[in-house]
Design brief:
434 residues, 67% helix, disordered C terminus
């Protein structure tokens, strides 16, 4: 009975995190999120004996309910609708700045919607797969709520697929099936993916699908799945070298991946708009800053020494370090070793985010999903602490709270060190006596 009460508290508090607070209402959001996360830990690690199928059923039901709640903590949806309306009017969304498109009097893209855009001075950065969802979601109504429901419906299907794939991969790896709860019940996943409408839901689904087909030794299916992930969000491109290595540097894999990407990214080439897309991507990584731990420390030191924000130098340095680590993993990786493939993919993504200039809460979705197949749980702590970055939106004007950020990363790095050194040594000692 107590377990079911905690499950109810988890569901209600998670729902209220999506339904009640606005982006700037930090002191409403954090108590609700803390309650939801506390209940999540008790449920996910089976402190109370509740059947797995029952817990998954509630997780799916809550996801379904969240389809009908308009995003409160993110304003990205307005750009999604804007891009969808552009495509319906026959315009390439990569070719027009919102300020230029406003003068065209495109149906739905009025001053009211323009005022809600968070980056009207940039070309769109959303890849073609996401644009197809925008097009579909704006096809039936100009009403924002209807568009939200249609977009969320596609994310809901991706989430159901991800949960099913996690269960299949856990079985293939001979791991406990209850590990799926770490993803299925995590409040961050529900709030940010279904609640706030972020397309990392598709990233997680397609990467898991690529790993599933990799385990099944299906080269073409794995390559196609990864390419679809890249066309939903660019980040899965980081994982291509490891899957390629797994299949003994298969030319067939590279060819299938390249052809699929070429076909799916072909809309960018019409009118030579490919450069504008990557111009905005470059601006994103070279100018935007949010909750970047190591980067923020180096930025502070650089500012003290030079009097300037050195993002243009520190950003590429962080990228170089990430690539160097990935290359080392690549050289160590053995072919047809699924455990190394998942481990090196997980650590590459984690290091990338630890060194990144911008780390929004929903960015942790993919490393969190991959952590289920590994013994590391610091991502769980990070998925709780990263929500405190919402304090930045509570200031007028917007400002970063460096103290909160410092405490977040101090705790995360502390647990990483513990899990990769002290806990690892203790586990080896225990196994040596068994």
């Amino acid at each position: 009975m107590l377990g079911h009460l905690l499950l109810l508290l988890w569901a209600v508090s998670t729902f209220l995190c999506v339904f009640l607070p606005k982006q700037a209402e930090f002191f409403t959001l954090i108590p609700l999120y803390s309650l939801a996360f506390g209940m999540y830990i008790l449920l996910a690690f089976q402190i109370f004996s509740i059947r797995l199928n029952y817990l998954l059923g509630v997780a799916v039901l809550l996801r379904f309910i969240l389809i009908f709640v308009f995003p409160n903590l993110s304003d990205d949806i307005y750009r999604f609708i804007w891009d969808g309306n552009l495509i319906h009017a026959g315009y390439n969304p990569y070719s027009l700045l919102p300020s230029d498109a406003l003068a065209l009097n495109i149906s739905g893209n009025n001053q009211l919607l323009f005022n809600e855009l968070n980056s009207p001075e940039y070309f769109t950065v959303y890849p073609p797969f996401a644009q197809a969802i925008f097009y579909f979601s704006t096809a039936f109504s100009g009403d924002w709520a209807t568009c939200s429901i249609l977009m969320k419906s596609t994310l809901f299907m991706a989430e159901i697929g991800s949960i099913a794939l996690i269960l299949k991969i856990l079985k293939q790896l001979n791991l406990e099936d209850h590990r799926v709860l770490i993803y299925a019940l995590n409040p961050l996943i529900l709030i940010e993916l279904l609640g706030n409408l972020h397309f990392e839901a598709f990233t997680v689904f397609f990467v898991l699908l690529a790993f599933y087909w990799t385990i099944k030794q299906k080269v073409l299916a794995a390559a196609t799945s990864l390419a679809l992930g890249v066309c939903a969000k660019l980040l899965p491109l980081m994982l291509l070298p490891f899957i390629w290595n797994y299949f003994n540097k298969s030319k067939k894999l590279l060819a299938a991946f390249g052809v699929t990407c070429l076909l799916l990214f072909s809309p960018l080439f019409f009118g030579m708009h490919f450069s504008k897309f990557f111009q905005s991507v470059d601006l994103y990584f070279g100018k935007f800053e949010f909750n970047g731990g190591v980067y923020s420390l180096l930025r502070y030191i650089g500012f003290q020494l030079s009097g300037f924000n050195l993002i243009r130098f520190i950003g590429p340095l962080m990228a170089f370090i990430t690539l160097a680590v990935m290359f080392r993993f690549f050289l160590k990786q053995r072919k047809a070793n699924i455990h190394q493939l998942i481990s090196f993919s997980f650590w590459s993504l984690t290091i990338y985010y630890l060194l990144s200039t911008t780390v929004h809460p929903w960015y942790l979705s993919l490393p969190l999903a991959l952590s289920l197949f590994l013994p590391f749980r610091f991502i769980l702590l990070w998925s709780f602490l990263i929500f405190f970055s919402y304090i930045n939106y509570s200031y007028e004007p917007y400002a970063e709270n460096l103290t909160v950020m410092f405490l977040e990363y101090l705790a995360v790095f502390g647990l990483i060190i513990y899990e990769t050194t002290i806990r690892k040594k203790a586990l080896k000692e225990h196994l040596s006596h068994v």
